[in-house]
Structure prediction request, 97 residues.
Amino acid sequence: MEIDIITKEQKKLAKYAKALSHPIRVHIMDILAASEHCYSGDLHELGIAKSTLSQHLKVLKESGLIQGHFELPKIKYCLNKENWQEAKHLFKKHMKL
Prediction:
C-alpha cells in the first residue's frame, strides 16, 4: 500500500504556484485584480501574440485563478475571487509570511 505524503493543501499550492510561474501571467493577474473584469481584446496591449496570450489565459483558467465568460465577439475575464483568496492564504501559510 502506497502512502501519499503530499497533502491536498500542498497540491493546491503547487497548482497555483505553477500558474503564476510566468511573469506575463503574474501581470495578467495584476490587471484583473485592479479591475472588476477585462476583455480578451484589452489584454492584447501586452504586446504578445494572440496565441501566446490565449495559452497564458488557459493556464490561469485551468488553475482556477481566473474565469472567462463569452460575451461575443469577446471573452470577459475576471479573477475567481474565492480561489484567489485561497491561493493568497496558502502562500502566506506555507511561506510563513
